[in-house]
Amino acid sequence: MHKIIHIDMDAFFASVEQRDCPQYRGKPLIVGGDPDGRGVVAAASYEARQFGIRSAMSCRDAKKRCPDAIFVRPRFEAYRAVSQQILSLMYAITPLVEPLSLDEAYLDVSEVWQAYGSATALANELRAKIYQQTGLTASAGVSHTKMLAKIASDLNKPNGITVIMPEHAQSLIDSLPIEKFHGIGHASSEKLHAIGVHTGRQLRLTPLETLVQLFGNKRGKFYHDIAHGIDTRQVKAERVRKSVGTEITFGENIYRDDILLAKLQEQTRQAFGRLSDRNLQAHTITLKVRYADFSQITRSHSLKSPYQSADDAYKWLSELFRQIPRTQPIRLVGVTFSNLQSQQQSTQLLLDGL
After folding, report:
1. Is 25 helix (H, G, I), strand (E, B) or coil?
2. Which of 184, 200, 304, 328 has the smallest set of CB atoms within 10 Å of its CB?
């Protein structure tokens, strides 16, 4: 039986800001966009969450709920640096680490937990080391499947730990609202509510055929399995990244090409920096544009050899931009690098060709 830990940093972006800026501590803090524009909440401190403020909520709505909230723009470079510190601590324990995002990851400690006495003791030691090195708190879930470990990490937040033993798993699953299950989003929960399914137990008692009819074979079976505590997914130590990109939504729709191209160049440099940070190179670049009416187009360009610099990529992107229809202003531009390979692969291909 596997022993899996899910680590979830507590209000990560907001906690980094409160750590670095003492004047924000103990106050409702929102990391996100302009509260008077179209921005959304990227993270909210626990003081802000008391007002019902959550990630992905519009900053305008967040300000209405808490007029005294402090709004700050995200500092992703700072968050990535802290995330790398945390990952280093995880990799010191086991190579079987699967990052999900900057602030959460799975660890399979099945082969190493004995040295710590238990997987729970290991998780607590890791949480203590994270706090010692970063000054930030983390919550942990410990169980025998990824699904249960992730559910567990959310049950005792912030700065808590929950262990779900195999013999207690089904009763816990039965008691949970379906929204607590990772993989059941808003749209799926609405469909389930429409057929009278609100809890894990009700989901478990729903025939597989009904779930497949509602969600298709793959997702329907997944929902059926998780309701029965079945999750055979392994911790993937090396997740294959298919693309790297960035995008920006403007506070006001923009007509002017010079402003749009400047923003596009900025996004290209940011995306190329992320690519380089991961020791990746890309053969394809894609321009994403969303118009004022929310219609959207993409245009791509591929090269036989990878893009060598942000300026090289921007040259092609600016050409793609000049070819798109311009009948209305633009509210979003995005840049995505894909068709990726590691820099080592690129070097080896070059040597093979000599």
Report:
1. coil
2. 304
Q: Strand pairing partners for 93?
A: none
* Residues 154-159, mean pLDDT to the nearest whole number: 93
Q: Which residue has the tokens 């040259």?
A: 315
Amino acid at 142: V
pTM of the model: 0.69
Cβ-count burial 8-26 (b if 16+ within 10 Å, e if not): bbbbbbbbbbbeeeeebee
Q: Check whether 103 is labelled as a binding-site residue.
A: yes
Domains of the chain, each with CATH number or no CATH: 4-10+77-167 (3.30.70.270), 13-76 (3.40.1170.60), 169-228 (1.10.150.20), 243-344 (3.30.1490.100)
Q: What is the pLDDT of residues 51-60, one digit of tens each?
A: 999 888 899 9
> Is 8 a known ligand-binding residue?
yes
User: Quick one: CA dihedral 89, 91, 94, 99, positive or negative?
Assistant: positive
Which residues form the catalytic set? Answer: 104
Q: Model confidence over 263-300: pLDDT tens digits?
A: 999 999 999 988 887 778 999 999 999 998 888 899 99
Cβ-Cβ contacts under 8 Å for 66 (sequence gap 6 or more): 28, 30, 48, 51, 53
Note the pLDDT tens digit of each residue in 296-352: 899 999 988 899 999 999 999 999 999 999 889 999 999 999 888 875 444 334 333
Q: Please give the Cα distance from 308 to 288 (Å, whole number).
A: 21
Distance CA 153, CA 121 (A): 15
**How far, in Å, CA of 226 to CA of 74, rounded?**
35
